[in-house]
Amino acid sequence: MAETTSAEPTRRDMLYVATGAVGAIGVAMAAWPLIHQMNPDRSTVAAGAPMELDLAPIRPGQIVRVFWRGNPIFVRHRTPQEIEAARKVDLSELPDPQPDSARVKEGHAQWLIVYANCTHLGCIPLGNQGDYGGWFCPCHGSQFDTAGRIRRGPAPTNLPLPPYEFMSDTRIRIG
User: Fold this and answer.
1) pLDDT at position 7, please?
2) Would you tell me which of 6, 75, 82, 135 could form a disulfide with 125, CB atoms 3.0–4.6 Å apart?
3) Distance CA 165, CA 106 (A)
């Protein structure tokens, strides 16, 4: 009987390698669902996490646009003149009456945070424009004042307010 001690691979070696490869693939396929289930579900991802914004670099009179949950949001640092003009408006003149104090957080009247979509068809209005110094929607002519209230045009309601809170005098959390 001849003894084989060659360094060449045999059929048995090939079967060991193939069996090991199939076993490794099987373990990976079984582990994938277990690992994947640890990810957050789609509704949680779509809901979006709260975002924080530093207000310190925003100058009085400046409007900054940020995105939260895929929606644009205007953050406006209002001047004392803009605040006074918004407070003096006769509510009976407004299509969607809302006092300026209901549109800002108490003690932070200089900061107006609103969704940046016109309530008519969702266009993004231009800041510091129009007859009221607030926003002007060039698509259909809606005009909003410095409190984001509709003053003229086809928009049915004021610019909506997103959920937000002040963490400090110069920092907010949206969401």
Assistant:
1) 72
2) 135
3) 11
The structure's pTM equals 0.72
Average pLDDT per 10 consecutive residues for the chain, totaling 175 residues: 66 88 92 82 69 94 91 95 94 93 95 94 90 91 94 94 94 92
| Cβ partners under 8 Å of residue 172, min gap 6 | 52, 53, 55, 75, 111, 113, 164, 165, 166
Dihedral (CA of 75, 77, 81, 84) sign: positive
Look up 140 and say whether it is catalytic: yes
Q: What share of the chain is helix, strand, coil (3-state, %, to 5)?
A: 25, 25, 50
Structure-token pair, residue 74: 């205007």
Beta-carbon contacts of 155 under 8 Å, excluding residues fewer than 6 positions away, are 118, 119, 120, 137, 140, 142, 144
